[in-house]
């Protein structure tokens, strides 16, 4: 085989990997949609699309915060525990009114973010270790505050999970608004540019005089608040506070959505559109397996396979 042929093969392979990383998630969503339309009964019903959109909303909101953390060359494993903490705080403060309860839950998420950011930015703990510690501590604190499931009877909070505008659920509208907001912050603000610069090279960002510590703390605060919002919305939808199971393995779904969406684990880049598509892909994959009577454990296996493929594509592209 000639050098020219080998060169062309290498170029074609590199191009294929680039297309897979940039557009693979959209192709995956399209394939799953077509497969479900063809083989899943009643998939095209309005009620089914409403259900899928409501279920993907919390995953997407958490994934937005995860995208910021990964874009800074970090990760936030505490997001599921923050959701559990939020649902416990809501039950504790709901007697003071739904607004006070929601604000208290968001403050709790922000405090976890401050702790994560301080460990990473000031003490120098690796993000995976720092957020793992808060993952364990946050779930434990949530169970201390609320040891068991508790019904949520407040009509104002329950309407947040069941209400809609012109048929579009509040949860979907909130998730869409937050996605637009995070996309604007990443692309159009100084904070977004600083975040990407830090993710690309933290030493270079420090030498350039960027406020690295402040930006990192804000990144983890944003991730914590977004996870708390997801916890609030999930509580409103379920009409119950369950710190034992709420947010369980959410970090896996969020990381999958972000990585599959094209945001590299090496940082320096955040793809919000890809993250949205990644969250939709995970939801469609889960729904497909459930509708075809496969056990829930297959969903986790499928997510793991998707992550490996996405990371492999990014790794191979990074070599070139």
UniProtKB/TrEMBL annotation:
It is a multi-pass membrane protein. The chain crosses the membrane at residues 23-40, 52-70, 100-121, 128-146, 166-186, 215-234, 296-314. Keywords: Cell membrane, Membrane, Transmembrane, Transmembrane helix. It is found in: Cell membrane. This is ABC transporter permease. It holds the Pfam family BPD_transp_2. InterPro entries: ABC_transp_permease.
């Amino acid at each position: 085989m000639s050098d020219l042929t080998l060169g062309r093969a290498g170029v074609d392979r590199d191009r294929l990997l680039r297309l897979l990383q940039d557009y693979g998630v959209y192709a995956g969503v399209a394939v799953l949609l077509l497969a479900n339309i063809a083989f899943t009964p009643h998939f095209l019903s309005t009620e089914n699309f409403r259900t899928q959109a409501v279920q993907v909303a919390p995953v997407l909101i958490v994934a937005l915060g995860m995208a910021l953390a990964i874009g800074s060359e970090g990760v936030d494993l505490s997001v599921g525990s923050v959701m559990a903490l939020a649902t416990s705080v809501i039950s504790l403060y709901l007697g003071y009114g739904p607004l006070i309860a929601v604000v208290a839950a968001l403050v709790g998420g922000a405090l976890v973010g401050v702790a994560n950011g301080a460990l990473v930015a000031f003490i120098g703990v690796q993000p995976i270790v720092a957020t793992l510690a808060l993952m364990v501590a946050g779930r434990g604190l949530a169970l201390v505050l609320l040891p068991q499931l508790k019904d949520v009877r407040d009509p104002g909070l329950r309407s947040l999970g069941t209400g809609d505008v012109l048929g579009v659920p509040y949860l979907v509208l909130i998730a869409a608004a937050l996605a637009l907001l995070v996309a604007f912050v990443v692309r159009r603000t100084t904070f977004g540019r600083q975040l990407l610069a830090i993710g690309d090279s933290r030493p270079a960002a420090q030498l350039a005089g960027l406020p690295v510590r402040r930006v990192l703390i804000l990144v983890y605060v944003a991730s914590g608040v977004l996870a708390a919002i997801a916890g609030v919305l999930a509580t409103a939808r379920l009409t119950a506070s369950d710190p034992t199971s709420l947010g369980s393995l959410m970090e896996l779904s969020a990381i999958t959505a972000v990585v599959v969406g094209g945001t590299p684990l090496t940082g320096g880049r955040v793809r919000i559109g890809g993250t949205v598509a990644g969250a939709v892909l995970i939801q469609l994959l889960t729904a497909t397996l459930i509708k075809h009577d496969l056990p829930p454990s297959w969903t986790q296996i499928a997510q793991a396979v998707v992550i490996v493929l996405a990371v492999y594509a990014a790794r191979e592209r990074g070599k070139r």
